[in-house]
Structures are given as structure tokens and as C-alpha cells.
Amino acid sequence: MYKKALFLVIAISLFLTKARADEGMWIPMLLKKYNIEEMQRLGFKLTAEDIYSVNRACLKDAVVIFGRGCTGELISDQGLVITNHHCGYGQIQYHSSVKHDYLTNGFWAMSQEEELVNPGLTVTFLKRMEDVTTQVLEGVTDQMSLKERDSVIVKNMTAIKKAAIKDTHYKAVLKPFFHNNQYFLFVNEVFKDVRLVGAPPSAIGKFGGDTDNWMWPRHTGDFSLFRIYADKENQPAEYSKDNVPYKPAMHFPVSLKGVKEGDFTMVFGYPGSTYEYVPSYHLEMLTETINPKLIDVRTEKLRIMNRYQEADAKVRIQYAAKNARVSNSWKRWIGENKGLAKLNAINKKKAFEQSFQQWVEVNNDLNKKYGDLLADYKKLYQEYTTYRLAGDYTSELIYRNGIEIAKLAGSFDALAELYKAETKDEKAIAKLKETLSKAAKLYFKDYHLPLDKEMTAMLLDRYRQNVPADFHPNIYQTIDKKYKGNTEKYVDAVFKKSNFINQQQLEALINNFNEKQIKILEKDPAFLLFMSFKELYKTTIYKQLKSFNQQLAELNRLYMAAQMKFEKDKVFYPDANFTLRVSYGQVKGYKARDGVFYDNVTTLEGIIEKDNPDIYDYRVPEKLKELYKKKDFGRYEVNGSVPVCFVATNHTTGGNSGSPVLNAEGHLIGVNFDRAWEGVMSDLMYNPEQCRNISLDIRYVLFLIDKFAGAGYLLDEMTVVE
């Protein structure tokens, strides 16, 4: 039996070693220890200190968190930032109207005075990071209960963060790595005055739309430009007309040298979440239950949105960002399931688990500590899956671009609670009223009642069909008893009687809100709909999900530690957790399926080939067609066209949107914006043959700024490398 176990360990290790040639999201401060030699073997010409240093300016100083979920990078010494068009989409939409439709027409500030202010938008620089595992786990013992362990860890983390930023304007973030086996501190600097500089029209920035999303070949000019402003001391400041462009410690030189097959590439950004080390039961849950149900409901959401958007230009603008949010995960889930099936991922996980279990059982100490891990996982996932589905589906109904009127009504619950308190906090009440008033204005700016009404009926029916009866809120009793099971009649009544369908009526409710208004709120049918799902989630789903997640976290911690012992010679990278990471690889095409091989680059010629005025996603702007016809490509021309996008083997995920793609010299050659559909399973298992990140070629960006937009002055402030 021992020989059989040893053979399986060797077989699995060989498979994993082969599969991880380009895999990994690596911690910048540890590159010198684990990665720099391999990076240099692949062609990288800089040092680990050039990438990350706390003693001098380095590449990390040119990378920022853009907003709350993307990456951006500095491309001039005047605070100019480039990120994806889809990362800046919310700001572009915020400034758009039927009169000034920047989504359709694009926006270009021809001077700094024309740049547009974006309330609430921030960029965040990492100042330093530090391994604080020993400090976080001080006082923690194996004999502690989970509650005791968490209490000690939280107390230690609070003290560490407080000490790290004492007497500074910095912010501290402390995050677990390797499923709570290691901890790192991040000290950040946040800038709050970030202005829109330029964005191409959606026909370029979103070219191909949902049709091409997650796909290769790609021809999307997915970029937007912003500028960071600071006070006169170059420090973060709230917006002021007296602020000046920020002077960064580092900005990326922009390269016109381009890429070719086999070239070294490095992505430096903030990947959001991956789950590389989960057991096979997690993959079974996703592929057999969660993903199929969520794909189904989002298919219906998109069907409704698309129909209304196609019929009305105003609705198209109002729901542009909402549609993009719904579509993004919908298409990824479809690709994820296909990719995992192609990889035979579940069976590969099971083979690994079999060899792991045999390794554990030959050692009494290991068996005592880890012997029941997989059995405990199996039992837990059998129960967890049903609750996870109910929780995800509830979020789909209310929060993930679902029933908008219910979400809006639910936002008033906090106001009612403030009025019910024994001692009223008048300051908090006034602040919340102001917040709700602003939110209501933004809500109605991007709201279409007929769409929401149809969406509401569909979602309520889908929930009833796809979620077990034990998780049905009491609102279904109302539908069955009062409306004889007719969801549409119930929805008609909600939208007829609610206070949340009219902006003026809602403003009056906010301004005049008092104890008497609570009764009106609590009888409002939209509020009752929200509260029905909230109560269900609170009483039936949340507590159990929380318990399951705590149990999973502990199993994951033990399993991660055990895997690292099992494969003691392997260098592990931590799952993504929206902290700064480096991934490196090479420009490389790939075989998509039998008989289909994709090249590594696309060009402007491909955009013209896709041009179709009858399809919104493929309407090429006339000026771009004119430039192509005249071959007016300037210094961005390559072989009679302009490079647009390229693919490489860098391991990326959500959050890497907008990340700089650097060449061997550390120069900017592209902006990461997507992954090829065949490889989107890389959040769970990496396939070196098909996992490809898609990047916008920086030469296409410069061509658009210069030749299309006529904003060549922006190039003057960049460091362009010929």
C-alpha cells in the first residue's frame, strides 16, 4: 500500500509541476527568494529590488488600486493614470446624459481645466508590506476553540494596524494568506481627487460588447484615462480647485517596441479572488448546482434588459453599467463550467485527494491531525450547497441588479431603526437622510419602471422554481392567498401602491420622515417585499451560512497546511485576495479546440472586418474607418495596420482589470483587461495550454489618443520609448 501511495504522490507531483510553468500570483516582496531567477531565465532584465523596494522608488510605486475593484498605473510624472474603460465605466456614465452622451461619443479633456471631477473615486498606493504572521498568531494555541482563536487574532490584528499607521495619514490593511496560515500587513496611501481625462466611445472601449466578452480574438480598446490631484505639498486631499497634479515617485515608460511570440510579460496588479486549493467537493458544488442555477436566472435578466435597451436610447444609457455587471459573471460561469469539464478537474482533484489520504494514513501523527479532513469536507458540502444556493439566489433577487424597487425600499430600514432607538441620534439621522436623498437622485437617473416591473415578476417566479420550499419567504403566502398564485397581479399591486416609484414622492418621504412615517414605510408593498427576503435570510440562511463558512475556514486552514507538508518541495503561491501581486509568463497563442489555433495578436484590420452598422456591439466609428482607409497610422503602424490586443500566459483574475503589462525592461506594453473564455477556470485550476490573459496593446492606445481623439498633448507628458 505504501508503494502505491508513493507512486500516486509522484504522479500527481509531476502533473502539478508540469502544469505550473506560467501559473501563480506571487507576493512582490518575496520575488527575490522564490521567483526572480526563473523570471530572468524567461528574459526579465531587472532585479527583484526594481519591482518592490521600501528604500527607493520602484515599479510598485506606479501601480494603484483604482476605485474599489480594479488596478491602474501611472504613465506620466503629472499623475496621469490609465486603467480599463470598463473600470472607469461608472464615472463615464455618471457624467453622461442624452445631451452629453460620453458613453456613445467618448470624452477627451483638451486641457487640465476640462477634466471632470468624480465624487467618491479614489486611487490607492501601496507604501509597504510586511509579514506579520508571528505577531498575529502570538498567544494562539492548538488547544483553543475557534472562537478563542479568532478573538486573539482579531485583537492582535487591531493592535498591529493601529501601530503601523500611528501619526500618519496612511491606511492599514491586514490580510490572511494561505487560508489563515500566514498574514501580511499593507500600509497604503489613498488619494481622493481623481478626475476623468479621456475615454474612447463605447464603440471602441467596449467594442464587441457582451458578444466578445471573455473571448479571443479580441479587438476592444478597453482603456480610460484619469488624473490624480494632490495638495500643494503633494499629499492626498479632498477635491479643491487649488489642488495640483500629483507627482508620483515612479511612472511607467510607454514602449512602442511591441510584442512577439515568446516575449517575457509581467502583470503587476490586484487580483481579486481565487480558490486553487479547495477540495473536489467545492468544484462539484459549483459545476453541478450553483453555476447552472445562476446562469439560468442571469440569462433571463439579460433577456429583459436587452429588449428594453434596444428599444430606447435613454434606457440603453441608464442600464449600460447594470447590464455589463450582470453579463460579466454570467458568461464567466458558463466558461468556467466548460473549462473545468475539459480539464477533468473534479477527477484530478479526487486523484490528488486519494494520494493525499494514503500519505496521511501511513503516519499516525498525520492521521490523527488530518485523517478526517476529506470526510469532514464531504459531509459539510452536502449541507452547505443548499444554503449557498439560497443565499446566492437571494442576492440575485435583491442586490445583484435584481428587484430595484425592493433594494431601494430596503435602504430605508436603517432610517426607521434610528427613529425607533430610545435615544435619537439627530446627527446620524440627518446624515442618513442626506445620503438617502443623494442615492434616490442617482437611482431615478438610471431607472426604468417597466423594466423593473417585468424583472420583479420573473425573479419571484424563478426563485420559487429553483430554490427549495424551506427557503421561501412569507411573501409567497401573500401571493398564493391574496393573488391566487398570480405573481404578475401581485407585482402590479406593488408598483401601483408603493411610495418608491416616484422621485418627488420619495423625496417628500425623506424630508418629512418621522415616527409616524415609519408606519407608512412598514406598510409599503416594496418595503414588505424587501423585508420578507431580509427576514428569511436573517432567520433561516445567514446564521447557518456563517456557521458553515467558519467550519470551512478551519478545514481550509488545516488542509492548506497539510498540502504544504504533503508537497514540501513545491513553491506555493497564495490565493488572490486583492493584494498586490506579480504574475509572469510569455506572449503565446493557443489551440482553442480541434482544428482551431489562435494567433497571439489582433490588429485594426480585424476591427474593420467586424464592422456591422446593424449590430450595436460592432458599429465602428466613422473616424476610425476613415483613418484605416487613409492608412493614417503614424508611428504606430506595424505591417500595414495597427496592433490592437495580444494574449499571454500570465495568471490573472478579476481585479487585474487595468493592470500594467510590462516587458523585460519594465516598460508598459499593454493594459490587461480580460481572459480567454477557454481558460476562465483558472480561478480554480490553471490550464497552461489554454489559460491566457488578454491585454490591450499600448500602441493602439497611443494611436487612439493621438490620431483618433486629437489629444496628442497627453503623449507629450509620457515617457515614450521607441
Note down, in words, how this protein is organized.
Strand 15 and strand 16 form a beta hairpin. Helix 11 runs antiparallel to helix 13 (320-343). This protein has two domains: 48-122 and 192-273 and 575-721, Thrombin, subunit H (Beta Barrel); 280-562, no CATH class. The longest helix is centred in the last third of the chain and has 42 residues, at 525-566. Helix content is 48%, strand content 15%. The strands form four sheets. Strands 1, 2, 3, 4, 5, 6, 7, 8, 9, 10 and 11 form an eleven-stranded antiparallel β-sheet that branches. Strands 14-13-19-20-21-18-17 form a seven-stranded antiparallel β-sheet. With 722 residues, the chain is an alpha+beta fold.
For the secondary structure, the number of strands is: 22
Helix content: 40-55%
Distance between the termini: 62 Å
What does the radius of gyration come to? Answer: 27 Å
CATH fold title of the largest domain:
Thrombin, subunit H
For the record, the CATH class of the largest domain is Mainly Beta
* Contiguous uncertain segments of 5+ residues: 1-20
- CATH second-level architecture of the largest domain: Beta Barrel
Strand residue content: 5-15%
Shape: globular
Estimate the mean pLDDT confidence: 94
Derived from helix and strand composition plus strand pairing, the structural class reads alpha+beta
The largest β sheet comes out as: 11 strands, antiparallel
Number of helices: 29
Number of domains: 2
Helix and strand topology:
Elements: H1 2-19, H2 31-34, H3 36-41, H4 48-51, E1 63-66, E2 70-74, E3 80-83, H5 89-94, H6 102-105, E4 107-108, E5 116-117, E6 123-131, H7 133-136, H8 146-164, E7 171-177, E8 182-191, E9 193-199, H9 202-205, H10 209-212, E10 224-230, E11 244-245, E12 254-255, E13 264-269, H11 280-311, H12 313-318, H13 320-343, H14 345-361, H15 364-370, H16 373-398, H17 404-410, H18 413-420, H19 426-445, H20 449-466, H21 475-482, H22 487-497, H23 503-511, H24 515-523, H25 525-566, E14 581-586, E15 590-593, E16 596-598, E17 601-603, H26 604-610, H27 622-630, E18 643-648, E19 660-662, E20 668-675, E21 693-697, H28 698-708, H29 713-716, E22 720-721
